[in-house]
């Protein structure tokens, strides 16, 4: 059950701020990842968002995500969890960072999901699928690199990307009202989760 903060005011301006906070709050502070800085919003102080109170709030937001359908869970995690964690393993190949477990698991799930719903056409290569999904959710990799790494035609990579964007982001038809446009899975996930948070006073009313 989500908890309203002590002063009964919503601690977050939007569902985006709530999710960025939940997935960047680490060990009593807000880990200022690229997404957290971009979203702005709470910095870990005020409105019950510091220390143990903040950790509790982050935990409750994550618990609410866990109650959603698996596709919505993984889309939200892939969008808002940090892509990288610091790494100091000392190995010669160490780059100082590694893919975060939450983000990586979500990308793995989504890469299998697009295969199950027959979004991939004739290309079934798991690492290729994963690379294209990762690109949609923020990984800095080009089609040229993806195609070259996995021996796939550039047009094939571009075509799969277009289908992924269509599925996750949706399509806006020019000249039509927004209600008549087809909204993607990511938009529906955010909308449903925002309603859940609004009902519990966690985000401000729009």
Structure description:
The structure is a single chain. The protein starts with 14 loop residues before the first helix and ends in a 7-residue tail after the last helix. The chain has helices spanning 15-24, 34-39, 51-66, 70-80, 101-116, 126-136, 143-150, 154-168, 185-199, and strands at residues 25-26, 29-30, 84-86, 97-99, 170-171, 182-183. With 206 residues, it is mainly alpha-helical. The radius of gyration is 19 Å and the shape is globular. The chain is built from nine helices and six strands. The model is unreliable at 1-7 and 32-46 (pLDDT under 50). The protein has two domains: 1-67 and 195-206, no CATH class; 84-168, no CATH class. α6 (126-136) runs antiparallel to α7 and α6 (126-136) crosses α8 (154-168). The chain has a two-stranded antiparallel sheet with strand order 1-2. The longest helix is centred in the N-terminal third of the chain and has 16 residues, at 51-66.
Structural features:
206 residues, mainly alpha, two-stranded antiparallel sheet, 6 strands, 52% helix, disordered N terminus
The parts where pLDDT drops under 50 for at least 5 residues are 1-7, 32-46
DSSP strand content: 5-15%
Report the total helices. 9
- Alpha-beta content class: mainly alpha
Q: In what order do the strands lie side by side in the largest sheet?
A: 1-2
Q: Can you give the mean pLDDT? A: 78
- What sort of overall outline do the alpha carbons produce when their principal axes are compared? globular
| Count of individual beta strands | 6
How is the main sheet built? 2 strands, antiparallel
Task: Please give the domain count.
Answer: 2
Secondary-structure element series: HEEHHHEEHHHHEEH
Amino-to-carboxy terminus distance: 22 Å
Query: In which range does the helix fraction lie?
Result: 40-55%
The rounded Rg comes to 19 Å
